[in-house]
């Protein structure tokens, strides 16, 4: 049993209700919740003094705190975590479901356009900023070609079996000749049929070693360099779609809030290895919630991320959708929205009509 689960199980009904009402009140208004307010909403009639005693106990446990000199209390990050793990009641409303479904057409053939619409819809529905991590193209490869552009630049052209074509400029090993480029391309094309780029990358090292005597050293270097150009840390074919940034700025009347949001945007712009979002979600298929410093990408901005992976027809995680907002998110509404959106995108990608 985790520490939070143990604390929750040891709390009596009154302590649990006070804690839940403090959190829900804060999430609803952003204001501290005081003992007098709670006396009017508790299911049993208790005095303000009794509630203050309960709140002191909750504060000692690190679940709530008093901001500045306020007489009221707000949840701590630990308190929010315990609330979303143990007390959150999440239900998808019919109106939210309809708005999500309206953005996804079962006959859609353009995945990129669909994901753009999903991102815009998520930000509009939740009034936060949405994140959509688009899947990289993993169709089998049909043909690879290397084209010399200059002494220090070359182009690798990748043609997929479904007609999708990708191009990337990279720096080749010194001394490449037209002959070594043809040799490298011929070698790769003997391997690619029916394999994805990931499959080829896994196979390539062993094949180069086995055929090194037949391959010119330059050609072997070019093969490695050319394929590595598609696997760099900076860009692995994934695309991050961010929508609704203005929604977050609209929340920040306080200059400190505005500065935190700008920090978040800066982090997003600088974060080139966006596949981290996939890594964050791979521990489970459902929605994951990262509050404040639990996610290093948003630690400085004090934001929360609600994210869920989506899968292809092979049940492999290929992307993720999520919502960013202040820690004062309406988790009970946003969690099922993100969950349902991810399920819907997965179903669309598993259909026979979609293409990357």
UniProtKB/TrEMBL annotation:
Coiled coil ranges: none
Keyword Repressor: yes
Keywords: Repressor, Stress response, Transcription, Transcription regulation
SUPFAM superfamilies associated with the record: GAF domain-like (SSF55781), Winged helix' DNA-binding domain (SSF46785)
Gene Ontology molecular-function annotations: DNA binding
Top-level taxonomic group: Bacteria
This protein's record includes keyword Transmembrane helix: no
An annotated GO BP: negative regulation of DNA-templated transcription
InterPro entries recorded: GAF-like_dom_sf (IPR029016), HrcA (IPR002571), HrcA_C (IPR021153), WH-like_DNA-bd_sf (IPR036388), WH_DNA-bd_sf (IPR036390), WHTH_transcript_rep_HrcA_IDD (IPR023120)
Domain Heat-inducible transcription repressor HrcA C-terminal positions: 114-335
Family as reported in the entry's similarity comment: Belongs to the HrcA family.
Role description: Negative regulator of class I heat shock genes (grpE-dnaK-dnaJ and groELS operons). Prevents heat-shock induction of these operons.
Protein name: Heat-inducible transcription repressor HrcA
Organism: Jannaschia seohaensis
């Amino acid at each position: 049993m985790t520490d939070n689960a143990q604390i929750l199980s040891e709390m009596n009904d009154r302590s649990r209700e006070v804690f839940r009402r403090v959190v829900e009140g804060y999430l609803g208004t952003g204001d501290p919740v005081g003992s007098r307010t709670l006396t009017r909403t508790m299911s049993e009639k208790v005095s303000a003094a009794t509630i203050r005693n309960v709140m002191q106990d909750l504060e000692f446990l690190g679940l709530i705190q008093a901001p500045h000199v306020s007489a009221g209390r707000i949840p701590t990050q630990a308190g929010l975590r315990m609330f979303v793990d143990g007390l959150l009641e999440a239900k998808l409303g019919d109106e939210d479901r309809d708005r999500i479904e309206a953005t996804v057409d079962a006959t859609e053939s353009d995945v990129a356009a669909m994901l753009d619409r999903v991102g815009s819809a998520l930000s509009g529905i939740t009034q936060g900023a949405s994140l959509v991590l688009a899947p990289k193209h993993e169709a089998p490869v049909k043909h690879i070609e290397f084209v010399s552009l200059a002494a220090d630049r070359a182009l690798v052209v990748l043609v997929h079996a479904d007609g999708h074509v990708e191009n990337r400029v990279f720096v080749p090993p010194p001394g490449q000749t037209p002959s070594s480029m043809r040799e490298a391309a011929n070698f790769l094309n003997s391997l690619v049929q029916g394999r994805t780029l990931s499959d080829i990358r896994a196979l390539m090292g062993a094949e180069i070693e086995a055929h090194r005597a037949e391959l010119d050293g330059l050609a072997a270097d070019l093969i490695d360099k050319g394929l590595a150009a598609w696997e760099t840390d900076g860009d692995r074919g994934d695309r991050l779609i961010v929508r609704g940034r203005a929604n977050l700025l609209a929340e920040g009347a306080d200059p400190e809030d505005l500065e935190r949001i700008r920090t978040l945007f800066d982090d997003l712009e600088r974060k080139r290895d966006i596949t981290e979002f996939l890594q964050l979600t791979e521990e489970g298929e459902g929605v994951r919630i990262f509050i404040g410093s639990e996610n290093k990408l948003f630690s400085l901005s004090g934001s929360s991320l609600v994210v869920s992976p989506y899968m292809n027809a092979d049940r492999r995680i290929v992307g993720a959708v999520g919502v960013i907002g202040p820690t004062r998110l309406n988790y009970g509404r946003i969690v099922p929205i993100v969950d349902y959106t991810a399920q819907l995108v997965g179903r669309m990608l598993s259909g026979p009509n979609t293409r990357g």
